[in-house]
Amino acid sequence: MIKKNSFIAVISLIFAYACTQGTRESAEKQLSDTVKLTVASFLTAAPNYVNKPVQILGTVSHTCKHGGKRMFLVDENDSISVEITTGPDIAKFDEALIGSRLRVFGILKEERIDEKYLSEWENEILKPQPNHNVGVHTGAKGHVDQTSQDKLDQIAAYREEIKKSGKDHLSFYSVEAINFEELK
Amino acid sequence: MQRRKLQRWNNALHRDLGYLFFGMTIIYAISGIVLNHFKSGAFKHPDYSKSFWEFTVSRPADGKITKSYIDNVLKEAGEEGHYKSHIFSDNSLQIFLTTGSITIDLASGSAYQEKKQTRYIIKEFNLLHYNNIKKAYTWYSDIYAVALILLAITGLFILRGKNGILKRGAWLTAIGIIIPALFILFYA
After folding, report:
1. How many domains does chain A have?
2. What b/e string do you get for B98-137 counting C-beta neighbours within 10 Å, with b at 16 or more?
3. Judgement on whether residues A29 and A91 belong to the same structural domain of the protein
4. The complex's ipTM?
5. Which B positions 66-95 lie with beta carbon below 8 A of chain A?
6. Does domain B48-118 have CATH number 3.30.530?
């Protein structure tokens, strides 16, 4: 009986090791094939890589405390920040990551903000119940504690930006993380 | 005879599920209270307790941020050995620590420190409650949810007589359904 159980355990271990190795190797290959972006180059490069795999290096400046579904990467200067969202295999970004330097591997996403989006957002704000899931998450300090008036001002500013851009929308780019590693 | 057999199965199922999921119920109950209240008062984060204070630090010589300046700030704040990284903008410097962060207004030297401590155990409970583990835990928590339904249903039929579902039990069960219904009616 013990012999039989040991045999099953050994087979399971070999199988588990083989699976892990395969996954690791394919992930490493994927990682080396993807385009490398920096926080500073992100905004200019992003339109060329929408829905494509990318990797980006940066320091975590903020994680959203509502379930940790978002974090923001900056370089040494915090004037530009890149939004990273959790992909299907990442449950949350723990607050302990704040201040850590990460290499994030993921898919670059574009979110388009147009008049329809802004009108819906405006209607949500004017409802009495607060809804954290709508609106644009900027990662700026205090963005979670914005009042309704702050949000309405933000909507007005976006409308103004759309008008100035000459297009019918604004594009916001983020990376949906597949995995990440902490750099020491 | 058939009825007595059913009663025995009902009670046995209720008993065993109760034993089996005692741990999960306590975890979800404690974490539920924490998650219900984490936005009120100073209770800002469910996984970490945080304290804040202000103090003044020396300003950098020539306005340059150097490693030795950061080391000095950490010494003044009593946070040597906790450095992780730092970022700066035109007028402020933010030093990230393993224990929180310090934000310094470089023009005035005023510093704002956030110190956090992990709420061990509660953090792990929240991890389970939010299902931030995913993978096989999703299935296990689904099983727990089904077990809760079974516990509720089998619980109705444990006792017979004046405390059973047809007498006292009927009233209490009805009240238990009406209370959440009233919340939906008046608040939703």
Report:
1. 3
2. ebbbbebebeeeebebbbbeebeebbebbbbbbebeeeee
3. no
4. 0.70
5. 84-89, 94
6. no
